Amino acid sequence: MSKPLVLVTGSSGFIGFRTLLTALQAGYPVRAAVRSPFKGETLLANPVLKAILSGPGAQLSFVTVPDIVAPEAYMEALKDVTYVLHIASPVPKAGLTDFEAEMVQPAVRGTLNLLEAAAKVKSVKRIVITSSIVAVVDFNFWTNPEYIKVASPENRIRGLEGLPVTDVRTAYQVSKIKALNASEEFIQREKPGFDLINVLPSYVVGPNALNTKPEDVLSTTNAVVFTQILGTDATTPVAGAVVSVDDVALMHVLALDPMVPGNISLAANSGGKGYVTLEEAVEIVKRRFPEAVADGRLRPTGKMTSREMTFDGTRSEKILGFKFRSYETQIVETTQHYLNLLAKSNL
Fold it and tell me: Which residues of the chain register pLDDT less than 70?
């Protein structure tokens, strides 16, 4: 029996591309929304995607959505779609000047545009949205070094619409808070013909199939844990909460199963009911990659400090029927990815 059509947004990003690959491997026909035809052509040139598409039954098409905040931006993209994996959202980057216009509003308006369009398309039955741990953590965690927070989708920040956005980190956090709240309020208010699942990842770690150079590994949240492997100290303490990109992608696809209850939020984080000591990566790399350490390809001498952040993902494991990868597995997979890219660059 053929599976229903899935629309994936944000497929040219770290999480989005891995989710696109995972959906195809699970047998779903996928329509990927891209900002321009060039983006689609670039993805089709990726060797990992090429290998999947060369297999039997893989179906991928593209639809151009140049501006996610434009009215009815997604109407054409949603035609005949049953499921949506909405991953597109602004991420922190250098050079932003108008945080509200460049981060907060695109995240919120892009989400609402999709939900409003989907409400007009009878075929849509479920939308899964990529949110973030930063949508539910207490701001005190970031500002008070002594503050220890147990975060969960059920125990979240409320009433931050008036918070002043003065830097890119706060802008990203506010964008995720407002988008999460807006999506849930839409479901409660409009009662559309589809349900909603929000997936909330912590720091996402793992191989990025879009990377072509070893330095690209530091262009995503991999940098949070991997800079210490290359000899650089972290400048500030970091929350001990990480998750494999493969697990985040898998969660999105598993959440499409009609047996999974809708209108819920799912924490994406390894470590169970505890927290991860991120600086353990140094000893993991020394133990697992002794030759690369000895010859200088890896320099696990960087210093960092983890702060306790409990973000319990065991409920997600139970609902979706899987287990999160361990922190050691995440570090080993990312390190091997870096070494593979390094070897290719030296050919």
Answer: 139, 142-143, 145, 148, 157, 159-163, 347
The DSSP 8-state label assigned to residue 36 in this structure reads S
CA distance 8 to 115: 14
pLDDT single digits (tens) 187-218: 999 999 999 999 999 999 999 999 999 999 99
Helix, coil or strand: residue 7: strand
Phi, psi of 125 (to 5 degrees): -115, -25
Q: Are 202 and 268 in contact (CB under 8 A)?
A: yes
Residue 337 backbone zone (phi > 0: left; psi -120 to 50: alpha; other: beta): alpha
Among residues 246, 248, 245, 239, the alpha carbon closest in space to that of 266 is found at 248
Token representation of residue 321: 């029927």
Cβ count near 293 (within 10 Å): 18
- How far, in Å, CA of 330 to CA of 275, rounded? 15
Asked if 197 and 265 count as a contact pair (C-beta separation under 8 A), the reply is yes
Q: Judge contact between 32 and 20, C-beta under 8 A.
A: yes
Angle at 125 between CA 65 and CA 85, to 5 degrees: 45
Write the pLDDT tens digit of every residue in 221-251.
Answer: 999 999 999 999 998 888 899 999 999 999 9
Beta bridge partners of 149: 309
| Burial class of 344 by CB neighbour count within 10 A (0 to 12, 13 to 18, 19+) | exposed
pLDDT at 161: 60
